[in-house]
Write a structure and sequence with these properties.
Elements (H helix, E strand, L loop, with lengths): L4 E5 L8 H15 L5 E5 L4 H7 L4 E3 L16 H7 L3 E4 L8 H13 L3 E6 L2 H8 L5 E4 L11 H4 L1 H14 L4 E5 L5 H9 L4 E4 L1 H4 L4 H10 L4
Parallel strand pairs: 1-2, 1-8, 2-3, 3-4, 4-5, 5-6, 6-7, 7-8
Helix pairs in contact: 1-10, 5-7, 8-10
Length: 223
């Protein structure tokens, strides 16, 4: 089962890629302060650079099911692993995958030794993808992503149901809570609902002080 985790998705915000993104990540690394609770989901082009410069675990934001070889234009799992990624984020609402494509991507990721976080919009979908045995399922109602109210506050029953359904489907799979996560109260609520942690993006990356925002979230994780 995946352990406690705050997975920060940098998406493709201009200030969160390239050299500027690396400085942002260094500030997040300082905020983690040795807790070993934080990981970063970064664009494919930044994986090698960030993995070489940081001690925080790096997740590729996506991999395809394509294998190395005749796969022009694909994000190949073995290449992401060779570049330093330790995991990947799959089926995010902004990069949804058909069932067959998700299966192939997950198989490729696991074959490359990557941890997997699979996103799902609700409890039944979370239970379904949990049967693939990812390390984590991230419950993220699309309508709350990037919003001002977290799913753990606006729809705790969705999170509670997802945790129960995933446990019944695949007991070894941990659940993350995403969508609208902003502060330690949101994280504390998510943890009380049975999750292993949170998946967060704009709540950290677009904050006035990203490092302070991450520190606040980590304070809600407990030990």
């Amino acid at each position: 089962m995946g352990g406690p985790l705050v997975l920060v998705n940098l998406k493709t915000y201009g200030d969160a890629t390239g050299a500027a993104g690396l400085e942002l990540c260094r500030s997040l690394q300082r905020a983690d302060d040795g807790r070993s609770l934080t990981a970063l989901a970064v664009p494919a082009l930044d994986v090698a650079r960030y993995a070489a410069a940081l001690r925080l675990p790096i997740y590729a934001q996506h991999v395809d099911g394509a294998m190395a070889g005749k796969s022009t234009g694909h994000t190949v799992a073995t290449a992401m692993a060779a570049a330093g990624a330790v995991g990947t984020l799959l089926n995010h609402a902004e990069r949804p995958l058909a069932a067959a494509d998700l299966l192939a991507a997950h198989h490729a990721a696991k074959g490359a030794g990557l941890r997997t976080v699979i996103c799902a919009a609700d409890g039944p979908k979370a239970a379904k993808v949990a049967r693939l045995h990812p390390d984590y399922v991230a419950i993220e109602p699309p309508e709350l992503i990037g919003g001002e109210v977290s799913v753990s506050t606006a729809a705790p029953e969705v999170v509670r149901s997802a945790v129960a359904l995933v446990a019944a489907s695949s007991p070894s799979v941990a659940v993350l809570c995403g969508a609208g996560i902003k502060d330690r109260a949101d994280v504390t609520a998510a943890r009380k609902l049975g999750t292993a942690g949170v998946l967060v993006a704009s709540g950290v990356v677009c904050a006035k002080d990203p490092a302070a925002a991450l520190s606040d979230l980590l304070a809600g994780m407990g030990r």
